[in-house]
Each structure stands twice: as C-alpha cells, then as structure tokens.
Amino acid sequence: MGKLGGETLATVGSSIPALMFTCATFKQFFPHTVKIKLEIWWDKLVHWLFPEVQITFNEYGSSLYNRSVAYDTVESYLCSKSVAQAARLKAVSVKKDQPLVLAMDDYEEVHDEFQGIKVSWYRGKESTDLLTNSIYPSQTNSIYSRQRAPESRYYQLTFPEKHREFVTGKYLKHVMQEGKALKKGRRFRRLYMKNPSDGFWDYAIFQHPSTFDTYAMDAKRKKAIINDLITFSRAKDYYAKIGKVWKRGYLLYGPPGTGKSTMIAAMSNLLGYDIYDLELTTIKDNAELKTLLINTKSKSIIVVEDIDCSLDFTGKRKETDEEKKEKANYGESKVTLSGFLNFVDGIWSACEGERIFVFTTNHVEKLDPALIRRGRMDMHIELSYCCFEAFKVLARNYWNIDSHPLFEKIKQLFSEVNMTPADVAENLMPKTLGGDVITSLETLIQALETVKEGAGAKTKEEAKVDAEEEEAKKEEEEEEV
Ligand SMILES: Nc1ncnc2c1ncn2[C@@H]1O[C@H](COP(=O)(O)OP(=O)(O)OP(=O)(O)O)[C@@H](O)[C@H]1O
C-alpha cells in the first residue's frame, strides 16, 4: 500500500466501483478471449493495489474418487479457531464414528497468527454447475453417482505478499502437521466390509483392544514386526525414490487360535490404519474386485482371512457348506487368480499409496506360490503354539504378574505340549468374579497335563509328524473322491 500517495489512492478507490460496474456491463459483449485477458488484467490490478497472496484448498481435487486430504486437514486445524471466532458455525462431522466437529460456516472468515505473522482463512462455496460440468461429469455409473458431491467448498488462505516465503513454507507445514495430529486423535478407526445390498464398502467403528503390548509372542520376533510396520509407515519418500508402490504384504499363517486376527487388530492400533475385510467369495468378478480396490483409502489394511478357503486358487479344494450358502446368495464368484494378483499389485493397486495387504491362512502349503511370493507378500509370519515367553505376556495381561513359583512347572509343560495362545488365554481367564491367580495357573497346568496325556505323552516333534501324516492321508482321500 505504501506504493501510492494518499490522494491517488482515494481517486483510485472511488473509481473501483464504477470500473467494476462498467466491466460487468460490457463483459457480456466481449469475445471469450478478450474476457479472459480482462480477467487477468483485473487480477493484476487488484494485486497491485492490495499486494496479497491467496491459496485455495478445494474440497475436491481433480480426482473423481476422493475428497482432498489437504482440505480436511485445514478444516481440522481451523476447528478451534472457528469455534472461538466465527459468528456462524456448522457441524461438519456427525458420523457415527466421530465426535462432533464444528467448523466455520460458508462465507465466514477467521484469523490466525503464527510466529507473529497474521493470516486469514475464508470458507467459500463453489457453484454446483461448475462442479457438475467440469470435475464431476454427470454419470449414471454407480461409483460416480455415489461419490459425487452435491456442492463443493474451499478454504482460502490470504496473507501479505511480503510473507509469501514464510507462509508457503513454515506456516503451511505447521497447519498440515497440527491438522493431521488433530484428525488422528479425533477419529475412531473403521472396519469396512462389503455391503451385500449395493456392493460398496460399508463400515462399523473398529475398537478392538488388542495392541502389540498385549500380544503374546516371543519379544524379539514381535520387535522385528513392529519395526517393519513403523519403517513402512514412514517410508513414503523411500518408496518414491526406488520407484515402488507404497504398499506392503504380510502373510500370517499358523493353526487356528494362534492369533492371526488378533495381530491384524494390533497392526491397525499401532499404525492407526482402517481395516478393509475382503470376503472374496462374495465378489462377483474381477471388475467388482477392482472397483472395491479403488474405493479403499490410503492408511489402510486390506485383509483376506483364510485365503486358502476364499476361492479355489489351488484347484484342489472342496466347497464348504458355508460357501455353498454364499454361492446361493451372491451367485458364483468369477474372481480368478490372475484377477486377484492384479488386485494386489497390478496397475490399479497404485491409485492410493500407504496400504498394507494381509492374508491369513491355516494351510500355507496349499497356497499357489504366485500368491505369496516375496514382493507380493513381503513378510511371512508364522504364528504358532504358545511358548513360555508368550505365556508370560498373557500372564501379565490377565493377572499383572511377571513371575510366580508355578511358572517353573508351566515352563516345563510348554516345552512338552502344544497349546494355542487362544486356549492358554481361556485357561487364564478367571472363571468366577472372585477368581485368583493361583486357581487360574493351576487350571492352566491341569489343561496342559490333560493335553499331554491325551497326546499319549508325545513330544512336540512326534505330534507334528503325526499331524502331517494325517493331513497327507486326508488329501489322498480327497483326490480319490
Ligand atoms: N498371540 C496372542 N496374544 C494374545 N491373545 C491371543 C493371541 N493369540 C490368540 N489370542 C487370543 O485368542 C483368541 C483367538 O485368536 P485369533 O482369533 O486371533 O486366532 P486366529 O489365529 O485368527 O484363529 P483362526 O485361524 O481360527 O481365525 C483371541 O480373541 C485372543 O484373545
């Protein structure tokens, strides 16, 4: 503003309304190219008179599928400022999995100050016509119509030209960091599953209490898994540098009750990711699988449980009664192995980064090697019977103890017999309200001894060989049938 003298400024100021009126009147008669030029000159004139910079954060970007993350982050950041300053507020998040969040209403403005620099934020609304004609072309296709927004808003940040470098650098970094932290702290995680009526993802609030602290496992292995997950979640730049899609696959395998589902919950709680539970037998064909994939969000875990039972990827499997029922409800799934492999790491898997794929199985040996090769399933995690160290985690969870005179006996029994963490946990649970630690430990010892006697005092190795032989016999019988 110091560029102009007081008198000149007064003259220019009083001429602006007249100029605007004249422009608006004649604009309709100008050819399109002239109109564009006039708009550019007009912007330049305004900028010369009021040297300010504006940055707009649109609710929807060029992507047809997603709300802008930056817009949501700004909204979270401005929440407390809006509550303190705006005359009109709006409840923007009244979903079942989120506490009520208030934001400034449309056409409101709030001010912010960071390290002595003042800026202002304005919330505007874009014309629906523009939105429908350009970014969201009218489509009858269900994914488009479901995702289309009826109107689009934006936040506009305005600040003096002289602070351009500071605001575009330090200030916006601060806004994004604060906004993300607020969003994360406020949001419950979601468990998505396919809605049978319309074939789209539907979700429930996910509040599973399992964490890696309470997960019973050998400490060294557990640490390695945690490190792997955390390294992945922070490796955006690294994945970009090596030219790889930012995703990682984990194969969890082991007998029933060894904690595969529990580990998925612990992963979600560690990273704050949502879970998509994919039931392959309910998916019609490869196209539907692709649609579901592109509608998953980043920061998520896509789970296929019991993948050996999901589809006939092995070509050897017999249908279970449950699958027969599903077939009757949904029709036969035409998802093929190649369609599924494309789902995991084809070109479409790159549409949103930061995703984890988890497959679980009780029979790893039955899976097609292509499905679980390294690079597709990067980490193979065997979850097996409870060891003494894992038992100690459960004892701490259930009874808050790290040692006990009965531990020696339990240690000895764990070296002799197999028991899943699920069974150990069940035995440690107090059976009555006033249950005590000694009764629980004795119950567990008794259960372990019963297994030992039942197994004919077989060693673990002998039991394993027997189980393998039995499995091979079953397969032979199946083949004959
Ligand atoms: N490693 C573990 N740490 C803590 N609890 C566990 C662990 N493993 C199993 N449990 C307990 O056992 C129960 C069953 O475990 P979970 O469902 O995770 O097993 P699973 O391997 O997924 O079984 P399935 O193959 O039958 O689906 C859980 O609710 C949990 O309480």
From TrEMBL:
One family name in Pfam for this protein: AAA
All residue ranges annotated as the AAA+ ATPase domain in the record: 246-387
Keywords: ATP-binding, Hydrolase, Magnesium, Nucleotide-binding
A biological process term (GO) from this entry: response to stress
Native source species: Durio zibethinus
Signal sequence, renumbered to the chain: none
SUPFAM superfamilies: P-loop containing nucleoside triphosphate hydrolases
Record-given protein name: AAA-ATPase ASD, mitochondrial-like
PANTHER family: BCS1 AAA-TYPE ATPASE
Family per similarity comment: Belongs to the AAA ATPase family. BCS1 subfamily.
UniProt gene name: LOC111277930
Reaction catalysis annotation: ATP + H2O = ADP + phosphate + H(+)
A GO MF label: ATP binding
CDD domains according to UniProt: RecA-like_BCS1
